[in-house]
Amino acid sequence: MENPRVGVFICYCGTNINGVVDCEAVKEFASKLDGVVYAETYPFYCSDPGQKSIKNAIKEYNLNRIVVAACTPKIHEPTFRICIAEAGLSPYYLEFVNIREHVSFVHLEDREAATKKAMELVAGGVERAKRLEDVPKKVVEVDKSCLIIGGGIAGIQAALDLGDQGYKVYLVEKEESIGGRMAQLAKTFPTDDCAL
Ligand code: SF4
């Protein structure tokens, strides 16, 4: 594996993070971690200028692993995967550390402890980032057939829907006939038709 050259990017999220966590102290801490060659802070990394700052740093410092310490990955992990891919890195060379929901939002009253926790999470993120490997994309042909177990009304409807979509359908029923509970009803609402 190539020598990891980790860049750490710590987001203020305006005052959402920086109002509680001392982001500059986290940056200083991160810049001294083994494998880290660059660390910086920015008010809003998900903005265009914020992403540009990451891309510039990747090129200028020849970074090959990226740690973004920001919000929940549910929101912006895809954003930063695309961002680093546009800078020429594998999108899988990103480690996302949540220092907002996991730190500033839950430790509002204790700046010192919140900052310490953010440092520890970033240190963990850096170690994980150093071990990241690329995941090549692969296209796999899918056999367009499906098996439905149970020939009740749900199974029958699923078989019809999937058949309409062009799938070959195998419908398996353990009883002698299909229809399930529906076939046991004499009348159905609202027409009073026989269920069969
Ligand atoms: S990347 Fe996340 S933490 Fe940073 S400004 Fe955007 S929403 Fe806030």
Write up what this structure looks like.
With 196 residues, the protein is of the alpha/beta class. It folds into two domains: 6-130, Rossmann fold (3-Layer(aba) Sandwich), CATH 3.40.50; 145-184, no CATH class. Helices cover 37% and strands 17% of the residues. It has six helices and six strands; from the N terminus they run βαβαβαβααβαβ. It has helices at residues 23-31, 48-60, 73-86, 100-104, 111-130, 153-164, and strands at 6-11, 36-42, 65-70, 94-98, 145-149, 168-172. Helix 1 (23-31) links the parallel strand 1 (6-11) and strand 2 (36-42). Helix 1 (23-31) packs parallel to helix 5 (111-130) and helix 2 crosses helix 3. The radius of gyration is 27 Å and the shape is elongated. Bound molecules: iron/sulfur cluster (SF4). Residues 11, 13, 44-46, 70-71, 75-76, 100 line the site of iron/sulfur cluster.
> CATH fold name of the largest domain, please?
Rossmann fold
* Helical residue percent band: 25-40%
Could you list the spans in which at least 5 consecutive residues all have pLDDT below 50? none
| The first-level CATH class name of the largest domain | Alpha Beta
Q: Largest sheet, described in full?
A: 4 strands, parallel
The overall average pLDDT, rounded, is 95
Number of strands: 6
Radius of gyration: 27 Å
> How many separate structural domains?
2
Strand content: 15-25%
- Give the overall form: elongated
Per CATH, the architecture of the largest domain is 3-Layer(aba) Sandwich
The kinds of small molecule bound in this structure are:
iron/sulfur cluster
